[in-house]
Amino acid sequence: MSVAFRRESDEEHLEPTFEIPLPLGPNWVTERGLRLTREKVDALEAIDIAAMAEDEAKKLKRELRYWRTRLATAELRPAPDGRAVAFGARVTYRLNGRTKTVAIVGDDEADPNEGRISFSSPLARAMMNAEVGELLDFGGKADAVEILSIDPIQEG
């Protein structure tokens, strides 16, 4: 029989499902980030997939694989001393005449709306190792960022 008349299964035409991409670089976490990752794994493991539709169960398993990997590779970083901008620091800075405060955290914990930026973000990378009073180049502008204060994040 010719392959032209062969009935292909519907699954042959489905788009492939890929794993959730892992951020590049180390998986640094704060104490809060490690706790949130553990809670996420626990919450996903507690869901009964037996009652789910197959597609939903696959999505849940995929998400669970992501969070288990993030938990297994998490590197809890020591609290910074506050003398220079580092992972785990809360930094107050001035940019474009506006004063802002951000906490420098891990990729999975980052939420710019809550003032948490990833250590791998362009702003965090520009500020790393800077000290209070230092002016930094950012966004193609010289002396665009002024570091006003640096404190360790005080939350668990």
Q: How would you characterize this protein structure?
A:
The protein has 156 residues and is of the alpha/beta class. It has a domain at 89-152: Chitinase A, domain 3. The protein is 26% helix and 24% strand. The strands form two sheets. A five-stranded mixed β-sheet has the order 5-4-3-7-6. Strands 1-2 form a two-stranded parallel sheet. Strand 3 (89-95) and strand 4 form a beta hairpin. Helix 1 packs antiparallel against helix 2 (54-73). The chain is elongated and about 55 Å long. The model has no long low-confidence stretch (mean pLDDT 89).
Give the tags:
3 helices, 5-stranded mixed β-sheet, Chitinase A, domain 3, alpha/beta, 156 residues, single chain, 24% strand, elongated, two-stranded parallel sheet, 7 strands
